[in-house]
User: Fold Caspase-7-like isoform X1 from Frankliniella occidentalis.
Amino acid sequence: MDENHRQMIKDNIDKLSEECNFSNILEFLKYRNIFTKRELLNYASPNFQQKPEEERCRQIFTDIQTRGPTAFKVLLECLQATGHAKQHLLLKPGRVAVLPQNDSIAIKKSKSFPRNQDVYKMKSYPKGLFIFINNIKFERAVERDGAEKDEEFIDILREMGFSGDNAHNNKTVQEMWDLLLRFSSQETLAKVDSCIVLISSHGDILETRSRDRNITERELYIDGVDDITSQNAGNHLLCKDIIALFNSDQCKLRKGCPKIFILQACRGPRSVHRGKADGPISKHLKQTHPNWRDTFLLAPSMEGFKANRDPERGSWLFMALKEVFPEHAYNKDLETMKNLMNKCFDEYARKSSDELQQTLSYYEYGVSKKLYFSPGLHGSRDDVD
Assistant:
């Protein structure tokens, strides 16, 4: 380890050890093969386990100073991934760190990985990285009252073993694209088993004329806070471009790892009311993407329809995510949880004073396995391809 980094740990070791979760930090560093077998045996010994947690954490910060040249970088990743924001800022001043995990969130933890099934491997620590963009206030469009509640799902993701920054709020189209570009190309993605892209904003359908087939095609897009109303594709962030970015060679996530997109935005101008059964607005909405692999997409409504949002509780999509994932992610795959989320939508509709309804849209592209999140479980570093 670099002497400057070693000295930084020594100077801050008292504060680093305060309010520190020994088990989470050890699990991450163990997965990254930072410690020797002798050190791991010491950490697991009954005498060591009887020591106060602060003292045990101090020992970790002491031992890591003797490790190799990449140990400090791994430690920073560990502190960020495990929700130790204060400790992360001590060693990386001026950088934005994740907030501590919310102890009030009860996530049911898996007791074992799925067996005898063809499933995606979700054993890395963290299980994956996520990015959350939440646009609430716009230059021209109406403010999305209650959308700040959508960000509560971040705490659930962290409790499930995912790592990511706090939400990026109120971004223009260009700023959103730049954030996604940086996120998709970061080297850390190559060390995890999945990634999740979450965007909550206004949206609609962009109509384009196909010259070769002489038909009008419709593309779903998401608005930035500059919400330009022009029907020019260059003024909008197309959903297909977001997903294509993570299916390109530029994305550092390893091939065969699942990519989950949760895109909360209206998908058209119409509302669905109880007792009415209007169909999608266009059969020409593009559905085939032969180059997309291991891709899951959750959208709040059918094509052509608005996405409902409660001004007190947030969007229906994230309300359902916050309700279903903590209770069922431990033993159910994503497709099964999708069905449970639709049941949540039915309940929200029954309580809606405007008699609104909504149907979750769920897509799989190039998917050949089931996706279980298995919160609370991780494999060894040897499990990574």
In short: The chain has two domains: 3-91, 128-365.
